[in-house]
């Protein structure tokens, strides 16, 4: 395996810090100040902008002082030929190579508590057809645990990495993704937890010159899932596509917070998330943030979120934000919708002899189809369609 295209962790961190200093200062709630010092992250009260939607009482004190030394989980790895996937002690790892600095208390606590880093490395110039899959299975919620994952795609490589969560866990985590110049990486997370799980994860990606990242988030299970995902750019021509699908049942809280930070000229970002909700107190939150800095001339960005509310008692919050510091851009926009079934679609299908329940299923599948077909991993697409069908089969009789 060739890893010479990667600089070591300390040099990369210094380079990232120097790069950050070169950027124009930004005073914005879209760009929170990061710190490794836990003292700089007071315990949230729920009044803070970044925590106001999160049910803090259900986090099992991940945001306070719950010990993060639990080991009630197992990890299985199916690494594609040519890909290295190993656990490395923190002291020997390249943690921080993405330039990420914790921006909230849970992230800072997970950073401090992690004793090892799971590193996935795709060699430079490699074209890997088979996905690399990491499966984390939780075996209990009594003790909270913390993890750290680092995925690095070498220059001009092409690969798919999937992280699959299931079982029961109380889990805090940081994920770093580095896409080197000219590389193409599809990175997928599937949160298919049991209904008693709590998962708070912060992900940060940095994208090189003319590199492409397709980030896919699938959230189906868990009691509380809060995923914060950010991306920035290390060179011109970088492209980030963030796709998301989520389905919340009664009592579930699923929260996605996205941040595209355009730190280089002629870069692109496209954020598209779709969610469905059903059952009493099902709650989804989508926050889409885009920051276009002075340096980011000629960029193109768009973000959208669509929510389909299937029953009474479910609630979707959707907040797109766009902040522009330069007038020299190619295009920027955002959109958000939340609504119930389109009666005209149902009438159209029923008028052609399709039973009402089947018509409702078809409408939901059609709602998700545009995103599912763009994931680009056939096995995952089939699994997602089956999971949505299972969710609908459980409640279809009560859909309004």
From TrEMBL:
Residues 143-367 form the SUF system FeS cluster assembly SufBD core domain. SUPFAM superfamilies: Stabilizer of iron transporter SufD (SSF101960). One of its GO terms (biological process) is iron-sulfur cluster assembly. Belongs to the iron-sulfur cluster assembly SufBD family. InterPro entries: Fe-S_cluster_assembly_SufBD, SUF_FeS_clus_asmbl_SufBD_core, SUF_FeS_clus_asmbl_SufBD_sf, SUF_FeS_clus_asmbl_SufD. Pfam families: SUFBD_core. This is Fe-S cluster assembly protein SufD.
């Amino acid at each position: 395996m060739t890893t010479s295209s990667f600089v070591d962790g300390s040099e990369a961190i210094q380079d990232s810090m120097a790069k950050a200093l070169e950027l124009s200062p930004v005073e914005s709630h879209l760009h929170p100040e990061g710190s490794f010092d836990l003292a700089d992250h007071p315990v949230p009260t729920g009044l803070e902008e970044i925590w106001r939607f999160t049910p803090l009482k259900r986090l099992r004190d991940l945001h306070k002082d719950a010990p993060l030394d639990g080991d009630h989980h197992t990890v299985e790895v199916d690494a594609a030929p040519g890909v290295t996937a190993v656990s490395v002690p923190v002291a020997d790892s390249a943690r921080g190579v993405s330039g990420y600095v914790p921006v909230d208390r849970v992230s800072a606590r997970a950073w401090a508590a992690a004793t090892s880093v799971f590193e996935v490395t795709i060699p430079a110039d490699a074209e890997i057809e088979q996905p690399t899959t990491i499966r984390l299975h939780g075996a209990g919620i009594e003790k909270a645990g913390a993890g750290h994952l680092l995925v690095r795609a070498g220059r001009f490589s092409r690969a798919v990495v999937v992280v699959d969560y299931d079982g029961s866990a109380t889990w805090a985590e940081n994920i770093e993704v580095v896409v080197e110049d000219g590389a193409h990486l599809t990175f997928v997370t599937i949160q298919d937890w049991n209904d008693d799980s709590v998962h708070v994860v912060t992900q940060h990606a940095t994208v090189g010159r003319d590199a492409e990242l397709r980030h896919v988030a699938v959230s189906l299970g868990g009691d509380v899932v809060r995923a914060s995902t950010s991306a920035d750019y290390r060179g011109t021509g970088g492209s980030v596509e963030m796709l998301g699908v989520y389905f919340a049942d009664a009592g579930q809280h699923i929260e996605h917070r996205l941040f595209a930070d355009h730190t280089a000229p002629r870069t692109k970002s496209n954020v598209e998330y779709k969610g469905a909700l059903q059952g009493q107190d099902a709650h989804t939150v989508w926050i889409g943030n885009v920051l276009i800095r002075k340096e980011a001339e000629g960029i193109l960005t768009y973000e959208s979120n669509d929510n389909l509310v299937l029953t009474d008692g479910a609630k979707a919050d959707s907040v797109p934000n766009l902040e522009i510091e330069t007038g020299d851009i190619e295009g920027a926009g955002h959109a958000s919708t939340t609504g119930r079934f389109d009666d005209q679609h149902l009438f159209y299908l029923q008028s052609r002899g399709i039973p009402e329940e089947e018509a409702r299923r078809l409408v939901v599948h059609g709602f998700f189809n545009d995103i599912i077909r763009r994931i680009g991993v056939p096995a995952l697409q089939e699994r997602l369609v089956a999971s949505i069908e299972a969710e609908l089969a459980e409640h279809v009789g009560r859909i309004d």
